[in-house]
């Protein structure tokens, strides 16, 4: 007996084609949300104020700058969430990095020229951020602590240490180079946005084109399969939490540069925004799916909602409601997609 | 009470000689011997707790044997890990398939050893075209013709997924395939496909051990049946010389 077979031949082809179409739209839902929001605000702006919303370079740049910090956190979280984990500590790792970067820049500035002092500050912020990431990875991969609990513990530790180091206040930075890193422009583009775009491209490459990315997807779908394929899963998980902490560290350094001050609570409101960006971007909290480009769209959706509602003079508390609604819709679309796709 | 298979002149690819294994006070295998020849399908039958799983896990490097010896292609071997067994060409296909449902057939075949190519001459990227090509060719060798090489394997049926798991093993040149209940989770048409898949592998000269509770499948595809009972060899029969009643008697010790 020949086992000739193909999935399409078993289903009604027209039904299968519309199913494919629905799946394709569902996969791009974050960009669809973004388009709908932009059309909404553009229309509103033209009717109420007789001016453009999106095509004003001031608005577009403000939204981009707005999106930078949550997006950086979300990039690392995309990897962690695809692997089936979660990192709750990133908000305060970001705060810790901001405080350390501020202190280190000031300290180095006493004996070094401003540019070198800035480099010392950036390096210190990023390196210190790796510490909690390493501990997270060891807790989860070696000691088998559930990611939610392990990183919740690190949330507390990083928060406490960041406030202690900051002395309960913000740490101002006096360094002209550092200030222009955060607020300067190159060819009219904000430096922080350029750095973030380069980082997005790097993360997109890492997730979609390398073994590291491929193994991250495999671990999220079936950890046993990954182990049996000879992937060193514990080592991979440690790298993931290091990457997540590095992203948070970069977020913290850029925050300190933008506000020329390090604040322990810098990333506090961003944790949930960043996870929301990943989920709106199409990742599943069950692991196994998600993309960097989706996360970028998710972060932009949140930034457009937050900026746009202020722009049209809606009370700021409606932001929470709007972001919440988008998250819920997104998860519902994800469920439907799973049912249609037959992915477990 | 050993039964010589049809290819007596050939050397067995796998020769298990009075292997024993104990877990604490429990003797799971008490000196079990069996041989496997290239191009042969041997069914491993027995009641729950008879030692079937322990025996295949001892062969595939999950457990070390406490006594006896295992010879592979004429040489005495001791596999410390499943990876070591796999490197010799002994591949185990588990019931839960060990596939990543979100990855393509090609990505599953190459999982953990993905081929890379250079984009613009310097940037290393995953060689997806090579993976897709290998996937298409491997599946065609199994007489499964799949067009959707970019779809995740989670979208395929149980029998097709079984074929992907087997395809991965044969792509990496497995000479001995151990299949644990390959038809258990499948519907009847899919079971038939897997049975024809096993016949196909046999025709390619690969040796197969498969565990099954389904006597109908065993009689459809196996050359010989090795029956275990409470950790010992209860009997070994050629399919041509036996019938289901006799096998059941061997299994329960009637």
Structure explained in plain terms:
The complex is a heterodimer of chains A (about 350) and B (about 250). Chain A has about 350 residues and is mainly alpha-helical. Chain A has helices at about 5-10, 15-25, 30-50, 55-80, 90-110, 115-140, 145-165, 175-185, 190-210, 210-220, 225-230, 235-260, 270-280, 290-310, 320-340, and strands spanning about 170, 185, 190, 260. Chain A has a domain at about 55-265. Chain A is globular, with a radius of gyration of 22 Å. Helix content of chain A is about 75%, strand content about 0%. Chain A has a two-stranded antiparallel sheet. Chain A has a two-stranded antiparallel ribbon with strand order 2-3. Chain B has two domains: about 1-90 and about 175-255, P-loop containing nucleotide triphosphate hydrolases (Rossmann fold), CATH 3.40.50; about 100-175, no CATH class. Chain B has eight helices and twelve strands. Chain B has helices at about 50-60, 80-90, 105-110, 130-140, 160-170, 190-205, 215-220, 245-250; strands spanning about 15-25, 25-35, 40-45, 65-70, 75, 90-95, 115-120, 125, 175-180, 205-210, 225-230, 230-240. In chain B, strands 6-9-10-3-11-12 form a six-stranded mixed β-sheet, sandwiched between helices. In chain B, strand 4 (about 65-70) and strand 5 (about 75) form a beta hairpin. In chain B, helix 4 packs across helix 5 (about 160-170). Chain B is globular, with a radius of gyration of 19 Å. Chains A and B meet through helix 1, helix 10 and helix 11 of A and strand 8, helix 5 and helix 6 of B.
Set down the secondary structure blueprint.
The complex is a heterodimer of chains A (about 350) and B (about 250).
Chain A lengths: L6 H4 L2 H15 L1 H21 L7 H26 L7 H20 L4 H28 L5 H20 L4 E2 L3 H8 L1 E2 L2 E2 H19 L1 H11 L1 H6 L4 H27 L1 E2 L7 H11 L11 H20 L6 H24 L3
Antiparallel strand pairs in A: 1-4, 2-3
Helix pairs in contact in A: 2-15, 3-14, 4-9, 4-10, 4-12, 4-13, 4-14, 5-6, 5-7, 5-12, 6-7, 6-12, 8-12, 9-10, 10-12, 13-14, 14-15
Chain B lengths: L13 E10 L2 E11 L4 E6 L5 H8 L7 E6 L2 E3 L4 H7 L1 E4 L11 H5 L6 E4 L3 E4 L1 H14 L16 H14 L4 E5 L7 H16 L3 E5 L3 H7 L2 E6 L2 E7 L5 H9 L2
Parallel strand pairs in B: 3-10, 3-11, 6-9, 9-10
Antiparallel strand pairs in B: 1-2, 1-4, 4-5, 7-8, 11-12
